Amino acid sequence: MMRTPGSRADGLVRRRAYGRDRSGNVLILFALSAPVLFGIAGAALDYGNAVRIRTVEQSVSDATALLVAGADTPLARTEGFRLAEAQLRARLGDQSSAGGYRIEGAWIDGSNYKLTISTTLKTFMVHLLPGTADRIDVGVTTIVNRVAPQYETAPPTLTQLSPEAADYNRIYLYCYSSDPQRQQSADKGRRGITAIADNAQPPTDYSANKPPTCGANEAPSYMLRNVRNARTSPNKWDKDNEDVFIYYTDTVIDTGALVQTMNLTGAQVFKNSPSIPVDTQRYPMLETIVCDSLTACVSQSLGGILPNNHVTHTPQTSQKSCEEGKFMYYGWEDRPGGDRDYDDIRVVVSCPKQVKVSDKKLKIVQ
């Protein structure tokens, strides 16, 4: 029997042929899998780009860390970072659309300098993969070990003492070690504690006392011994059974920038009883200011930069480099929560003189 177009049998044939045609399925599968395929392909490109950037960063980081760690002036850090930025831009582009380059460096201790360089890379297509960001951070770290310099500090060039304080205050110089193992020793890393000034009437002459020379991983630091209501009673100054408070600056010096960081601690001490800590965060006890010259280290009323006497104020904490030839001012408040004028004892000392040890030895350790 002949089939005419449009017959029932002819329609059945066309439906069966359509069921066997899977070309549409292929298009659907490709459309669904394309982002993953492109993401995988893009991942290879992004990974290769990240490796290239990290290689350049590591090269610049190593060179910059060696430069800064081996230099002897605070300007080396600024100049080293500037050169590093220029090298990165020349070899990798400015990366400004992704936030540029981040360069950070600091001395971990007196012997080890750590430098990190990082940037944010905009991915090409890897972010098409589910759960993948469109940016990745690419960074490197270099740690350089160097033989630490030594510091020697002359006795205070000038001492300014407050005449109205009823307490007796004596200042000592000592060398504080930034080495954690030394800090666990019996002296807690404080070596050569030597009296250098007080507010006796007249002030005691300590010129015969030779301050210690601070060595590797050490920094000149200061101790305040405060004896309550004893300024005019010399027989009480060194007794342990009086009302005595002890404060330590425990100074650490950034070997590159020569910025001094004070880790002030204090306690009321007794002869036969445990000491009672003083909260020096709640009650700041010390003001520090770096002066470019000795003539600048006087009160503002005399043409200098120091706060005037007997003026309540928030104490300054110096963030400036204390280079050789400059001076550091220390203004103490001898009682927690006192009148907050930080002039109970005022001392100006020369900034540490850096003495080179034998030939410098630099080594990348990470």
State the helical fraction: 10-25%
What's the structural domain tally? Answer: 2
> What is the 3D form?
elongated
Number of strands: 18
- What topology, given as strand order, has the largest sheet? 7-6-8-9-12-13
Give, in order, the helices and strands.
HHHEEEEEEHEEEEEEEEEEEE
Question: What fraction strand?
Answer: 25-35%
Termini separation comes to: 90 Å
Number of helices: 4
Quick check: average pLDDT? 80
Query: Which class best fits the helix and strand makeup?
Result: alpha+beta
Roughly how many Å is the radius of gyration? 34 Å
Structural features, described:
The mean pLDDT is 80. The strands form five sheets. The chain has a six-stranded antiparallel beta sheet. The longest helix has 48 residues, at 23-70. The chain has helices at 8-20, 23-70, 75-92, 180-183; strands at 101-107, 112-122, 135-146, 150-152, 158-161, 168-177, 190-198, 218-227, 244-248, 251-253, 260-262, 265-269, 276-277, 286-291, 327-332, 345-350, 353-355, 362-364. It is of the alpha+beta class.
Jot down its keywords:
6-stranded antiparallel β-sheet; 366 residues; alpha+beta; 2 domains; 23% helix
Architecture blueprint of SSEs:
Blueprint (H helix, E strand, L loop, with lengths): L7 H13 L2 H48 L4 H18 L8 E7 L4 E11 L12 E12 L3 E3 L5 E4 L6 E10 L2 H4 L6 E9 L19 E10 L16 E5 L2 E3 L6 E3 L2 E5 L6 E2 L8 E6 L35 E6 L12 E6 L2 E3 L6 E3 L2
Antiparallel strand pairs: 1-2, 2-3, 3-18, 4-17, 5-16, 6-7, 6-8, 8-9, 9-12, 10-11, 12-13, 14-15, 15-16
Give the structure's gist in a few sentences.
This protein is of the alpha+beta class and 366 residues long. The protein has 4 helices and 18 strands.
